[in-house]
Specification:
Blueprint lengths: L4 H46 L21 H5 L7 H5 L19 H6 L7 H10 L25 H8 L7 E5 L11 H7 L2 E5 L3 H9 L5 E3 L2 E2 L6 E6 L7 E2 L3 H7 L12 H6 E7 L1 H7 L4 E7 L5 H6 L7 E8 L6 H11 L2 E9 L2 E8 L2 H8 L1
Parallel strand pairs: 1-2, 1-8, 2-3, 4-7, 8-9
Antiparallel strand pairs: 5-6, 5-7, 9-11, 10-11
Helix pairs in contact: 5-11
Length: 374
Amino acid sequence: MRFTRDDFRFSKRLAFFAFPAGLMSFLYIFSCAVRMDSKSTIEEQLFEAEMQDHPQQLSLELSSSGNNLWSATAELSPMKFNLMEETYGYNWAEAPADIYLPASDCTIEYANANKLQQDHPCVIRLIRRNYLLQPAPISNPYRMDHPEVIDPSDGQSQAILKILQNKTNGFFIECGGYDGEFLSNTLYMERWLGWSGLLIEADKKAFGRLISRNRKAYTSPVCLSTKLYPMQVIYNATVGTLSSILENPYEELKNRKSKSIDGQVNHKDDNENIYKVQCFPLYSILLAVERTRIDYFGLDVEGSEYKILRTIPWHKIDIKTLTVEWNHTPEGEAAITRLMESNKFIKFGLISMPSTREVVYVRDFLDDYRKSKD
């Protein structure tokens, strides 16, 4: 084949256009790689800063910006949830509990300071002994302000019961339970369908009213930990149903012109409404009540929902349905949904009522079916 002068001119033109196109493609790929590497580095730094108080934590969760934090090592390594088996091996429970800590040394100060495992015998012992009240006897009548109200929830109970086909004798967790009546997501289930459960409420005044209702459920005056271990936090109870943990107590109390984080503040009301509260991981409390199969979990804690959900060792428990308030969480609903989807839950829908902005999740039971077919 002869190569003519015209062919040569055409080849030069083709090269003239092809070179910039190839260069642009190379620069684009290089810039993407740089951005991805930079983004990964920033996310890793943020994650390491968050987890520096617990160096063995390895997370596969999504960052609050909604981007994956994946690595080859992470994909091959199990997630760490600060469990006894991660420290002592899977047969740890065969040894006497006092091997890990004598009962005489088991104090809440020790548990907090040493960041004990979620399932440490000392943590479970402390919850049962100091932070858990038994359900009221069936024979004790309810004491409600408005007994004529059949369902005081804001739509959650009916939505969950429709999903669960009006299940009777189920088990729930409600955090926060507030006073056990006002906007309660679980009172209808308990009164009319024979459910039992666990009510968690950190607000001292609200908890006092809660235990006076004679609810047929466990009650606990604690908060759910946003870390993988027990801890003490500062709680702001000045806003009633919007009470919450102070994520940055020094700064927030400084803004309120407080004298210290111990509740010694300028105004009398603040003395009563800002105080220390003990927190435990949800899994610790479930072990204390010996229930890891839950039909419904309602989580409404005014901002810490995402952080709490990240502490849960989902492979250890079976929760069928959840409602999670999302409109006060810094991470937002999308981040919560990605987190739940990564733990085999399906977003069922949103509940938007005058007092509620919540998302409903249902456990993906088909995931078990798919695994059985593999």
